[in-house]
Amino acid sequence: MRNPLAALSLALLLGVPSFAQSNTQTPAPPSTVQSAAPLPAAEQALVGVIDQALAGVLYIETYSNQTAATTRQAPFSSPLFNDPNGPDAPQASGSGFFVNAAGYALTNYHVVEGASRLTVRLRDGNQTFDARVVGTAPDYDLALLQVQGVPAAQIRPLTLASGENLRVGQTTIALGAPFGFQFTATSGIVSAVERTIPTGVRSIAQRAIQTDAAINPGNSGGPLVNSAGQVIGINTQIINPNGGPSDIGTNIGLGFAIPIDTAARLLPRLQAGETIVGPIIGVALAPFELGELTQQARTQYNLPSEGALISQVTPNSPASTAGLRGGTQRQSTPYGAVFFGGDVITAVDGRAVRTPDELREYLFGRRAGDIVQLTIRRGSETLTVPVTLAAGTPPATNR
């Protein structure tokens, strides 16, 4: 006869119900996963917009010539594996987007600056295509590429939409490759319009769109689109947690995009192969707002409370030819040495100039050869002086 205790022990070990458990109720099966409910119509529309827009986005990798001495060694190396940090590895990555059916694409200048070779990948395939830089605008942080060998069916140009009526609260969608995560979409709103931020290799103040859509390194050059999938800007900067605009760091809800109107205005010149720099008048402006000065200082130097103070005039420049005057009294300031006593620009083409940044922003919307009417304060006199803008010199870069 079998020992019942032994039979019970065996049943428990095997997980088989024993005679002692035979009357226990069988547990109910776990809940099953149900099919997801249909998306609301508005959400379906947004998903479709993003899906269509991503088809026109580029993932850009840049390569630069470097010697073996500057190549980092990978912590693990083997003749069986490629060295991820070797001389054939990409040096950086960014984003871009098609603007026409000929394979031309816009991106940021800082994405392609210093690169000896560019490759592009599209969302609908793993194939890599070479690309060439057609034209650049370093001061505007813009570059135009042409992607080589892409089948016509895979070129999906995005529609550009003027930001003339852009309003705070509109939906924004940032597309690109943050931290190399390709073809990512993040959404938010237009946080502010008419922002002015330092832009380009010389950090000259220019208009920008502020958005809280997450923008991170790798998003640079990608499109900022509206809820219809139209491009309203080109992602360019975030606010660095240390306090300054930058293309490095992590998103804290303060992202900026170059208005697409700026890029559209320059696009024909970029496609013609130009290197575009902002026009100049040939002056060094005091790097501060006159409102920062004490009333005593403004009285001493006979300065208004608003305007752009000319510290120095460049010889043989448009400003010199027009007879503009720089300062003669050198003073040390928290911003460095500044010459006081020169002309103060208070308006340009009838538009009031309150700060140096406002003057620079206005001039960057013009072209070399344009004549602007400067209203200046010279001592107690107010004069109007015509100045012909000249082409600036392409800045040297360190990248």
Automatic annotation (TrEMBL):
Residues 264-380 form the PDZ domain. One of its GO terms (biological process) is proteolysis. One of its GO terms (molecular function) is serine-type endopeptidase activity. Gene3D superfamilies: 2.30.42.10, 2.40.10.120. InterPro entries: Chloro_Bact_Ser_Proteases (IPR051201), PDZ (IPR001478), PDZ_sf (IPR036034), Peptidase_S1_PA (IPR009003), Peptidase_S1C (IPR001940). Keywords: Hydrolase, Protease, Signal. Residues 1-20 form the signal peptide. It holds the Pfam family PDZ_2. PANTHER family: PEPTIDASE S12 (PTHR43343), PROTEASE DO-LIKE 8, CHLOROPLASTIC (PTHR43343:SF3). This is DegP2 peptidase. The lineage of its organism: Bacteria, Thermotogati, Deinococcota, Deinococci, Deinococcales.
